[in-house]
Amino acid sequence: MRTRFAFDVRFLAKFALLGLALMISTGTLSPTAAQEAPSPTNDPLLPYSTDEDTLGTFSAQSIDPLANQYDQSSDPLAYFRKRIALVKELWNSMETKLAKPGEGYQILRRAMPAGLFEYNRALLTSSKFIGGIYHHRDHVGDPNGRLPYVPVPAAKQKEALEFLQAHAFSEKAFQLPSSLHNKLAIERLYGLDWFSYFSVQRLDYPWHDAVLGLQRGLLSRLYHSITLGRLLDNELRFAPSEKPFTMAALFNGLNSAIWSELDGSVTRISSLRRNLQREQLRHLVRLTVRPTPSPAPPAASPFALAPLPAVPPPDDATSLARASLADLQAKLRKALAGGTAETTTRAHLQEVQTRIGSALQAQVQRQAD
Questions:
Q1: Measured distance CA(237)–CA(79) in Å, rounded
Q2: Sign of the C-alpha dihedral, residues 199, 202, 207, 208?
Q3: Which residues contact 243 (CB under 8 A, 6 or more apart)?
Q4: Tens digits of per-residue pLDDT, 310-359?
Q5: How many domains does the chain have?
Q6: How distant is the alpha carbon of residue 350 from its chain centre?
Q7: Domain residues for 325?
Q8: What b/e sequence results for 122-154 when a residue is b if at least 16 CB atoms lie within 10 Å of its CB, and e otherwise?
Q9: What does the pLDDT average to over 260-288?
């Protein structure tokens, strides 16, 4: 566990060090006794991290999965597993427990984004275990001192990937009864935030957009160049006797979950799944083609720091993305040859096949140039 309120701990620690120095200078405490004093940095009752460690928690630059905003648990995966179970319980029971006779259905609409917010936070925070590094502040010579950087064990990263596969990328994720979709009524009587009432573009609830936005944020973090680069470097941080979690394990795990329909006879791929597959395809194509990044914009003012340039993805990511596209291409040929897919699914598979062919051809031309 890392506490979000890290500043207070460091503030008090500075005063403690100043007091220790004063005691040594006045002879109240000998230097030898001061050196023998236990260090608080590795005390399990005093863990902490700073705002700089979290970097917004969901940023790819945030490396420690235990340094999070809005999370005080020592096992985030276990905690968020319970949170998602609560959200699913809410979705399954809200029709009977929230909607009251004589009242409007608007309470169901207000409850839906609250559940999605918790769901999104659980998935994004859990994704930090993949390519994650435990960051410690122990000093050299501390009793039972730990190294500054310790990669998250491969078993824990695999557990996090399986968690995402089940709750973000599986066919059963985000399935709601049609009756609930038809009860998510918009509020027709605006309140103090009346300006938001007139800015709504959809009177019905845009479930596809909400789910895709959640999945898009998750895939953007997993396929971020910084995350992939850290995954590559982490392979060197494991001891020879340890089994590392590789970049290939991430690519294979996402491919198998997102394109599971292609493993059998394809008849129908749901609209939510088609959205997810197209979104992942965009990342695979981007990593394969490697378009020239746009230059970083200048600083907003002479007193502001200029934005950092984009980090290119590792070459291994390009190789794995290309291999993923080639594997998908072979499965698509088999699925389309079967002739069992319904009209929209078949059109979707044909579009994906065309885009994969264009991406692979573009990479060949780029390498030739």
A1: 27
A2: negative
A3: 154
A4: 889 999 999 999 999 999 999 999 999 988 999 999 999 999 999 999 99
A5: 1
A6: 30
A7: 223-293+311-369
A8: bbbbbbbbbbbbbbbbeeeeeeeeeeeeebbbb
A9: 96
